[in-house]
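Write out this protein's structure.
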Amino acid sequence: MMDASSRLIRVGHSPDPDDAFMFYALAKGKIASGAYRFVHELVDIETLNRRALSGELELTAVSLHAYAYLADKYLLCSCGASMGDRYGPIVVARRKLSLDELRGRSIAVPGTLTTAFLALRLCLATEFRCVVVPFDQILDAVAAGEYQGQPVEAGLIIHEGQLTYGDHRLELVVDTAQWWFEKTGLPLPLGANALRKDLGPQAIHEVHRLLLESIRYALEHRDEALAYAMSFGRGLDRARADQFVGMYVNQWTLDFGPTGRQAVARLLAEGHQAGLIPNLVAPEFAE
């Protein structure tokens, strides 16, 4: 039983199997949360990015691209990362396209603060026509060739669409994380959890510890955590849900580690050097 004086921690994360898996223990009371009461808000990542600009939530998932605009308000958690280790956001189309052909196309994107959007801009090294579409509608928009009357010739896919695009008879054009690895030799840091700085050092340390405990619990009780996560899978069968969770909840999620931290710094530096991020940001991590 939690005391009425428990400190409220509003948690924002995406309604996706990997995030659900990660937060399972906290959401379902599998670990003791001590002096903290966690209230979970499940919202798409671009909405969370926008809400974080005003520091709305104490603990929130954010895109690493968005973090470049949030570093005054939030610290990155050392745990809870989503890393694309030679796989990640992909561009698909109704037929095979070269990168040169893609540069002239209208591309549906899941939001302009997503890391996927930044990675694609770095990959194409030019401006392109984009249409912002909710992430879970992009595959349908590409298959239909339009979204709300706007032409859509390709789509930037995040989340489980990376596994299901073939069901829509679409073709892979480029995997941005594979492109990034070939360029840098590093994984592509896609998303992280972030803690608001004004919580203070003690709360930051304790909430960070609880997040890490939740991730560890899920990895150690994989079957039950996966069963919970599957309810967020939008049609994924167990095998594909398990595959997707394994892609984004793994050793990188327990700790960015030196390589992961290097990857974050490199992404932010590349974005700044390309003129896509206004200020050069040195990432700060909670421990």
